[in-house]
Amino acid sequence: MHGFPRIPSPLKRSGVKTRQWGREPGSPRRPADVLVATFGSGEDILDFQCTPVLLFLFSRFRDAKDDEAMGDPTPGPLCVLLTDFPPGDAYVGVLKGVLLKSLPTLRIVDLAHGLPSGDIPWGALQLEYQARFFPEGSLFLAVVDPGVGTQRRILAARSGPYSFVGPDNGLLSPALTAYAGKKAPAIVAVNVEAVREYTGSDTFHGRDIMAPAAARLLTGSRLAEIGTPITDPVPLSLPTPRLEEGVWVGEVISADGFGNLITSLEATDQAGSPLRIWLESRDLGPVKRCYGEVDPGEAVAVMGSIGRIEISIRDGSAREQLAAGPGTRVEARRDP
Questions:
Q1: Other C-beta atoms within 10 Å of 186: how many?
Q2: Is it the case that residue 233 has pLDDT exceeding 60?
Q3: Which residues, 6+ apart, have CB-to-CB distance to 134 below 8 Å?
Q4: d(Cα 112, Cα 114) in Å, to the nearest integer?
Q5: 220-255 core/surface letters (b: 16 or more CB in 10 A; e: else)
Q6: For the segment 76-119, what is each residue's pLDDT rounded down to a tens digit?
Q7: What is the pLDDT of residues 118-140, one digit of tens each?
Q8: What is the domain extent for residue 183?
């Protein structure tokens, strides 16, 4: 059964005007298989007869030519930054400038900046846990580098779906292990002379070596083209909980920007009856679901967003008010 030809939706987006052949504006509609297509505006108008299929193909061709004229709309690769650079300084901006100079279409996401200076364990934990929330193919450029300028190596690596660039001080090691799967991560020690673009200082290897190395990978270079394969990256020895006479014993690893104390006690240690948390000799009570389950100013233990027990002060800083920090003993005891 004949019906009115259906105008494909791309025609509407392309701005092509159509009407049935032989039908004047305002006249009754009738079945037809031939359309009139009008392209252009003003004096540059072209009318011709065609079927809906030909009209559809022509409009798609015109859309493609328009996209070509406006530039490739395909998103560029993604680079994720994690640093301990203070947010009030220019360091982060300069990193981005070096990356964009090599690859103007690069997409850049700030995972975290202003981490406690030189806090490798906290940076490593963030990198290892948070990478899973990013698209496959993302490259992570991590700069927490208290040994900058020394003989420590700079690494570039691929582990599972992700790539990483950073100093060889343990910062990358947990992530490289976590995402490797059944295949060992591919790691190279970056050939500094092959990638270095800026000289005259050895205090900003993030700008001078790491960002150029990352840019090389993001523009298609292989790991072997920027460094020498290695199998011995510096490991990071994070504290792990231990069971002593029925009590899980851990410690504070670091503190986040709110002053919440991040501990080594993980969600996997919670199986069984509810846990009661002690910070040294202070009983913090059972693990709560959220901060709002206690009154303002009260200490509370919660399961944090990275799968570890955190100790907090509602509307305050546990780091300051409880005078605790890395190494402070934490215990998890089961209620009788």
A1: 17
A2: yes
A3: 78, 80, 109, 140, 162
A4: 7
A5: eeebeebbeeeeebbebeebebeeeeeebbbbbbbb
A6: 899 999 999 999 999 999 999 999 999 999 999 999 999 999 99
A7: 999 999 999 999 999 999 999 99
A8: 78-229
Domain count, the chain: 3
Angle at 113 between CA 110 and CA 116, to 5 degrees: 155
CA distance 220 to 206: 20
> Quick check: pTM over 0.90?
no
CATH assignment at residue 159: 3.40.50.10790
Residue 33 sits in the same domain as residue 137? no
Boundary of a domain, candidates 182, 197, 229: 229
| CB contact set of 251 (below 8 Å; sequence gap of 6+) | 239, 263, 264, 326, 327, 328, 329, 330
Q: Rounded distance, CA 324 to CA 321, Å?
A: 8
Last residue of a domain, one of 169, 198, 229: 229
Q: Is 1 or 145 the better-scoring residue by pLDDT?
A: 145
- Would you say residue 305 lies in a domain? yes
Could you give the CA distance from residue 237 to residue 264 in angstroms, rounded to a whole number?
12
Is 3 contained in some domain?
no
Residues 6 or more apart in contact with residue 144 via CB below 8 angstroms: 82, 83, 84, 115, 118, 119, 120, 123, 166, 167, 169, 171
On whether residue 86 sits in a domain, the answer given is: yes
Separation between Cα atoms, residue 300 and residue 294, nearest integer Å: 7
Residue identified by tokens 């199986």 is 271
